[in-house]
Sequence to fold (238 residues):
Amino acid sequence: MTQPLDLSDFERAVFFTGAGISAESGVPTYRGRAGIWAEYDPEKVASQAAFERDPETVLAFHEQRRALVAACAPNAAHRHIAAWQADHSGVSVITQNTDGLHETAGSSDVVELHGSLWRTRCARHGVLKDRSDGPYQRRDCPECGARLRPDITWFGDMVDTTAFEEAGRRVEAADLFVAVGTSGVVWPAAGFIELAARSGARMIEINPEPSEASVAFSTQLRQPAAEALPTLFPLPAD
Fold:
């Protein structure tokens, strides 16, 4: 059993989260036999070409996804990371998830690599928040009337360079890197694991199952995140 660690002993810590942390809250994953992509063709519901061809089908898919996520609450892992972030200015959260559960749990300044279900965007006028549970509050840009699309990185999209560059800076500066619930196979996000290792961070993986990236981690905890995180990083006593 790994001994508990004091997060205050690290100057800059990064929690790098993937689908597994939210699956513990009941959020359906995209990949795997029970994942969303086993039922839907992503090229038909999650690509710019599909949106241009049939925007109503694409928006309906994302509205269904929003309703599913809205029915889920942050779990102990989300809440524990948020509590540590509130207590320690050197804690960063970088997530591959689009569900917004880190923010709901109270985390601030989360780097969302792949966007958010709770935002839309106009190609000309940028991003709008949209926190309604399910249906989008508006489907047209209030500035120009253009059709708004979900602010999510779809298949075939370029990555959000601003988010990836910010994430890279935080990972490179980290002396602790904790990967939580990620398989480490989705690129280019998976490259942050290699970057953290090269930069000399202490490497910890929390995932019930081993992943292709597990070899990069000196500490591997095969437990659910909601169980492992509060035990590994106990909060300071009041």
Summary: The first strand starts at residue 13 and ends at 17. Strands lie at 13-17, 91-95, 110-112, 115-122, 126-129, 149-152, 176-180, 202-206, 219-221. The two ends are 26 Å apart (CA to CA).
